[in-house]
Amino acid sequence: MNASETDDYEGQVQSDDYKHSSDDNGGEPTRAATPNSDSSLAKPAGSLTGDVINIFRGFCMGAADTVPGVSGGTVALILGHYDRLIAAISNIDTEAVGLLRRRRWTSLIEKLDLRFTIALGIGIVVGIGSLAGLMHHLLLHQMNQTMAVFFGLVLASVWVVRRNVSRWAIPTMLACVVGILIALAVSQIPTSHGEINLLYLFFSASIAICAMILPGISGAFVLLLLGVYEPVIGMIKQFFKLNIDVMIVTRLTVFAIGCGFGLLAFSRLLNYLLRKHHDMTMATLIGLMIGSIGRLWPLQAVTPETADMELKFQEHVFISPAQYDGNIATLIVLAVAAALVVLIADRVTRNAHIEAS
Question: Could you give the angle at the alpha carbon of 107 between the alpha carbons of 102 and 110, nearest 5°?
Fold first, then answer.
């Protein structure tokens, strides 16, 4: 099976998995290939153009992960490759290990969608590495303007991603409300200072990695809530400075195993829900996005008690327009411009999909 045939097969599998029938639509599928679903971009997936697109997707995910309160999962949902990413991760199982042991490389690459995941991974690394410093500077010195941009991006993205739900009925609306409440509840949890033993570290890693692949919830924020962000970052810094001892290696290994366990276990659950209960799951994920928008509200100020702390540990409070010492019009223009970028990009993508069809 060549690359083109593989892409056609995968697109057919996704269509079979996610199509819904509707009496109101004469029995035709109500969710065949939405403009935001990955199937709409499936044609270039096995080409150099597809690789560039996936690297760009990863770059955007990495850039988002450098912003406190923004999840790479949100970007994956916005750019339309969330389902495919979760499916690829969930395919890491005993069958994949068997293919690896038997050196059946072609089958392994196809099963794990490695061309897609490797390109995505390259983009994520480049995005984090190249933009972490810039984002840190912007959030430290231009926080309100930066938040305005991300507020506009996410708000418009909610409007775009809503089409991934084929029919908004009472159950899907309730699922969306549940997602909103979960995101709001997570943002209100007080920071923990739990004992950093190996079991707690494993548990924290498993929970945080699940948050990282959920739209609207920042994995770094969850680590901060659990009280392990600073110790883990400290151990990673010491490791790269080659200040290594047995304790650091042991704890980082346990942390990595916890991440792997949480990622594989949770991705399987998400993949099942997306295949069997797609609309309800997507509605919940959209709710998570909506619930996280409050953390990006531009009118915020750092509390005096945390102003001298590192950026990740600073706390913010909402302020009124009268309390803001900058230009409100600038924030509005930035938010609107960011929202227009998303809406225009969505229109271009949809038109390209229609022409390709």
Answer: 145
Integer CA distances (angstroms), 351 to 83, 231, 354, in order: 22, 48, 5
pTM of the model: 0.65
Q: Which amino acid is at 46?
A: G
Of 54-63, 209-218, 311-320, the one with minimum mean pLDDT is: 209-218
State pLDDT tens for residues 257-290: 998 898 888 888 888 888 899 899 989 988 888 8
Residue 252 makes CB contacts below 8 A (sequence gap 6+) with 235, 236, 239
Residue 227's nearest CA partner among 200, 246, 206 is: 200
Q: Following CA atoms 349, 352, 354, 357 in sequence, which dihedral angle do they give, to the nearest 10 degrees?
A: -120
- The answer to whether residues 76 and 96 touch, using CB atoms and an 8 Å cutoff, is no
Task: Give the angle 106-109-111 at the CA atoms, nearest 5°.
Answer: 105
- Please give the radius of gyration of the chain, using alpha carbons only, rounded to the nearest integer: 21
Q: How many CB atoms lie within 10 A of CB 354?
A: 10
Residue among 118, 119, 115, 108 at smallest CA distance from 46: 115
The count of domains in the chain is 1
- Single-letter code of the amino acid located at 28: E
Q: Which of 151, 134, 124, 133 is nearest to 219 (CA)?
A: 124
Output the CA torsion 210→285→150→76 (10° steps): 70
Contact 20, 30 (CB under 8 A): yes
128-144 per-residue burial string, b: 16 or more CB within 10 A, e: under 16 = beebeeebeebbeeebb
Its domain, for residue 288, covers: 3-356
- Please tell me the predicted confidence (pLDDT) of residue 180: 92
Query: Phi and psi (nearest 5°) for 21?
Result: -100, 150
DSSP summary character for residue 318: E
